[in-house]
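#onboarding

Welcome to the new folks! Below is a worked example of what a typical request in this channel looks like: someone posts a single protein sequence, and someone else replies with the predicted structure as tokens. Don't worry about understanding the tokens yet, we'll cover that in week two.

Example request:
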Amino acid sequence: MNNCLILLTNYYPFHKGEEYLESEIKYLAANFKHIYIVSTMVSNEMKQTRSVPENVTLLPIGIKHSITGKVKMVSRQFKTIWTNNDKRVMLTEDSKGKPLPTLYSYYFESRAMDVYDRAEKKLNEFDFQQYDSITLYSYWLYITARVAVELKNKYFKDRKPYTISRAHRYDLYEYAAPLKYLPEREYLLESLDSIYPCSQDGVDFLNQTYPHYKDKINVERLGTVSSNVHSHTINDKLYIVSCSVMRKVKRLDLLIDALVELEKKKIPYLWTHIGGGPEFKNIEKLAQKKLNIEHVQFTGFMKNQDVLNWYKENPATVFVNLSSSEGVPVAIMEASSMGLPVIATDVGGTREIVENESNGYLLDKNCTVEQIVDCFLKFYKSNENDYNKMCESALKIWNERSNAKILYSNFAEKLVKQSFKLTKV
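Example response:
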């Protein structure tokens, strides 16, 4: 097995984010002789926060993605891109000549090429001729994928590297992007060997939007590990749990409005939200204003293992996710692995891991406060036998669709087979 994997991430294993890779990396490491992780959004000030297997080499780019840093990236690359007629035509056609999408395209390409230049210098320190096959793995269908394609077409042009990208949410659903547009979609799909959305919903979206590339688009789910621990609850009140980065898309304000109604109905509850983020202060103030704060706990940011430990040590009745947009929510997978039922909105790939009235309740994206409250009341009034059946179903569905050991083992083996197959062509 004389092969190597070049994994392009945003931050992992530095800073925070991309927590799913914390589980996946050991399965990749078991199938590749060596892994090189190119962390494309890591500045020199950032510290490594996650451990990696022994056969992994870290290549942080050392680049600042502040507004000033991004302006410098564009200024360094713009002239080169503008004077390249092929690129100029491609970007103009891709953006259909519209002013804002055109500016976005040049920004995207400038940023990708600046990362590529730095990655090239890092990779020059190693001998890749020693490997029989090379796999380029972009974790996002965005900047990292554009860099992977450039590595394929330029740096490794004589090696036929197997070049793939995962796709999640912000990097996939164009209708959810600020301009309803994501740069270089056609070019990336044409250039990559395989694209792996983490949900069937993502596969369907790409197939409908770009039908020419159906043969190279397949679902590869993310998963969570089993902790061999089941969440527990006591029936003195509803123990409501949510876990996410606090962003507007997570609609924690809607959850607060539902909790207001529980208080009006004198239904005892304790709501715990795990996670921090840009909306933390706003949500904290809203909760203080609308709710009895004695019924609310905000943990702030917690590492992945600490989240699992929290479930082990605290009672929980139901997990709630009211997002307006999702890929496949890993937080739901984690809760399900603990045997915890779920209330969630039917967005993205959520319906692929939550079955209505089996392991929880699936609500319309535009659900009302009354519908959310009705679900809470069902749990509050549920007898022990019915509740336990829902918990058992949560575990069963998790094991079938979200078990990291199965999903990541199969995925890593697939990458190895496809890479060697391409090398022999």
